[in-house]
Amino acid sequence: MFERLREDVRCVFDRDPAARTTFEVLTTYPGLHAILVHRLSHWLWSVGFKWLARFISALMRWFTGIEIHPGARIGRRFFIDHGMGVVIGETAEIGDDCTLYHGVTLGGTSWHKGKRHPTLGNDVVIGAGAKVLGPLTIGEGVRIGSNAVVLKDVGVGATVVGVPGRVVAARKDETPEHRAAIARKMGFDAYGTSKDMPDPVANAINRMLDHIHLMDQRLEEMCKGMKALGAELDTTKLPPLGPCELVNSSSEPDVEHLDTSGEVPDEGRGNS
Question: Looking at CB atoms within 10 Å, which of 25, 109, 191, 192 has the fewest?
Answer without folding.
Answer: 109
